[in-house]
Class I SAM-dependent methyltransferase (Leptospira ognonensis), 408 residues
Amino acid sequence: MTAKLCRVSNTPLKQVLDFGKQPLGNGFLEKKDFANEYFFPMSVGFSEVSMMFQLLEQPNPEIMFHDHYAFYSSTSGFMANHFKQFAEEVINSGYLSKTSPFVIELGCNDGIMLKNFASKGIQHLGIEPSLNVAKEANKHGVRTRSEFFSEELAETIVKEEGQIDAFLAANVMCHIPDILGVVKGIKKLLKPTGVVMFEDPYLGDVIAKTSYDQIYDEHVFLFSALSIKYLFGLCDMELIDLQPQKTHGGSMRYVLAHKGAYPVKNSVPEILAKEMAQGLDKLETFDKFRESVEQSKIDLVNLLKDLKAKGKKVVGYAATSKSTTVLNYCGIGPDLIEYICDTTPIKQGKLSPGMHIPVVPYETFAANSPDYAFLLAWNHAEEIMGKEKKYVESGGKWIIHVPKVQVL
Ligand code: SAH
Ligand code: TMP
């Protein structure tokens, strides 16, 4: 689906970066499927009206989210802990009704967050179109509806089950092209005292760290507080709090409510002012970003070619969806990276999207001790480096590319 116009403000988009043909971030595949591999022209644009940073073209949702979706949230213990805390913060926030509160989570995946509500007997519903991960959530006592969220589905839920206290989402709002339809649905779903709490990778961090790998097929938007204020303002809702998060290399949690329902916390004007100072409302900021991205590509390719020339063994660590952008944009294939190890069974034995680097079980990593490991899951650096201390003790080195290309 191509958008020459901003999906939110309907005003012309200015292209800021072009990555060329890209495969699906989670499109791990077998050799027999090479001929049918899906590619799309990936470029991003910006609207100075809505301040939305967005893909110009995105594959149809059904191509990305289905009954064999490769991303299982619970592969990270750090994220499991993060979502346990998020759930506790919602439960203790004071925003939920005292009697029989009802919460909905969009994109609940394998139940990583909602299981913390289910185990306490709190009325909940997960909206999760990818059936394989939704079934995993069911095993943890989480009730799901395997559908794409829309304004129509919101109306159906209100009719069948009534309005809700909290609308939660993590790393999913930025996946949905008809985001205005989602917000219209939320407006109908929420009780007058209801709140929205969602988090997504944060545009401010992407610009500050040149983490361009947050741009891939699923991420149709990268939000800022400015763009979220604009979007929800169209439905008479407002930001009441903003909470920066460390997850996914820098995320923002947005808390919103019907206009006037709650006092606005100081974090809101503070972070909005910071974003204006960073230039998240101006096109020229993205011209500088493009230059940094191009430099990052040159530095990374030079480093890997240099190591190859020296006869070093280099592998990738964690077959993340975001690494699909790095590997394809920089043209890094099995000649420079022998394999990628990953803990997700559905990815193992397959080849990486586009560049076709073999994905192997992570046990292979310890068994073969490479000279260098390119940490493709740089956002999980703390967790991974913590459990791979032996690798470094035995002389192994990490390569990371965010915030700049370096050997650690
Ligand atoms: N919340 C989890 C999963 C994020 S991945 C976490 O943070 O780890 C995004 C999830 O959103 C996927 O499981 C995908 O199937 C789901 N999703 C994608 N589009 C959706 C839509 N329109 N409505 C609801 N869920 C959606
Ligand atoms: P994400 O960056 O989109 O969360 O994807 C994480 C990927 O990294 C997922 O494929 C699992 C993999 N992974 C490992 O292989 N080992 C680990 O220790 C962690 C935390 C993740």
Residues 108 and 350 are 25 Å apart (CA to CA). The longest helix spans residues 283-309. The longest strand covers residues 190-201. The mean pLDDT is 96.
